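Can anyone check this?
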Amino acid sequence: MEQEIKDELETITRLTNMVIDFFVNYSFQVIGAIIIFLIGLIVARWASKLALRLCEKKTIDITLSLFIASCIKLLIIAMVAIICLGKFGISVAPFVAAIGAISLSLGLALQGVFSNYGAGFTIIITRPFTVGNTININNISGVVKEIRLAHTVLDTEDGEMITIPNKHIVGEVIINSFEYKVVEASVGISRHQLSK
């Protein structure tokens, strides 16, 4: 019985010593990593807002502005996370390799989605049409209600809403009537009236 109590006390002592050693050796690294991460979040938010304000000042399309701001924020957070992992002595190389492999497989799986985003980016940069323009693409016509990175939304004269994936817009013939609606119609004339 006494031996069991001694074994339990030794186990508790070992665990206590391990916890104390951990906090003595790594407490500053943990606190430093937390502080760096919090500062990184603040900087990422500030940089994102600054990029958004600059884009608005340069009158860049709102969709593209939000996309740029989000990319800047994610990039800063990723860099801060890598720095924090380095504080714990964790090697970042395996994470980078894993992220590369995951990105490749996701890229292949979501190829259609990414082509829509790439086409949307092209539409926003080149601006073949803007919100409020009346366009005709592949015999589909309507007023542009919304341009997003993945798709473009048109309103038809019948009150229908048409969503077109952006990859089906880029590279196609686009007829842009701007704010005016072009109506094509045929008018019949009676022969009887012509003879008079």
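Reply from J.R.: I decoded it. DSSP finds five helices and five strands in the chain.
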